[in-house]
# Entry
Amino acid sequence: MTDSKNNDPDLVSTHTTAATHSVARWVARHHGFEVQQCHLIRRGLNDNYALRSADGTRYVARLYSIRPRGGFNVDFEVALLAHLAAKGVGVAAPVVAADGRAHIQLQFPEGLRALALFHHAEGTTPDTLDEYELTGRTLANIHEAARDYAGPPSRYTLDGHHLAGRTLGYLESHPEVDAALFDTYRRLVHELVDELAAAEQGLTRVVCHGDTHGFNNHVNTDESGARRAVFFDFDDAGPGFLAYDLSVLPWSYMFRKNLKEPDDALRERWTHYLHGYRAGGGEVSERDAAALPLFVQLRHLWNLGEAAGRLHHWGTNSVPLDWLRKQLEVFEAWKRLDLRA
# Structure
């Protein structure tokens, strides 16, 4: 009979899901308020929990997962959000711990993980054309307000290496990827990174949200009756290219719908999104617009790499071999995208 009090040295945890009552206790201890309700929203790139305090205020606690890309970017994320919130931009503001820390560190079986608390973003994901326009306008506000950010630097620069180069290392560790398929992806990555290097001098640079696919912001009606968009999940934020931050929305739609070119619904949403971005003061140059197909492909490589880098957590089913082969046709089709609007 096994003694449950002793840990088996051969039993190694790669990812632990914390019980909701543990998260509630940690938040109460470190943030100094009573938590009445707590439930797990989702597990994924990070583990997110919804909380409600005794006075009814809603929060989201993010328990950061250990990523192969390196240390947590939480100091930058929290400081950037505080900067944006202070300027009145629609973001889910962070809630620092009672002792002033941006986050707390917790020892899990797999290693240290960070826990940060944010205000809940009321509302729902954009659905109507007006809501997509409002989303674009708010993204422009974020880019403008972040220009004078001077807090802790981001651990990530959203460049060719971050978006595509890391993916090669993750694919090389995939147990089912053979030499021929890996070499095909190696050539693809090098071609796209070289294309970016040739174009980047003429591209607009911003502090990117990094994950603006339309599900990381909510639209709500505030107390004055005005409609507003609120962005959250800035854990992939960092300095990068405007064309990348814009490209994530059409990429997400085409990826989810398994499309090789935009359909009418996407074109309508995209037109309103860009109109909102420009109405909010954002400028999209001809070079930025011309680079959008490149960044749609780079985004796809980044997303592929995020899954391939978590084989220990998600398994090979998240990036199956047949799917990897089929994506080569998608990359080829997306080279010819027309996203000008």
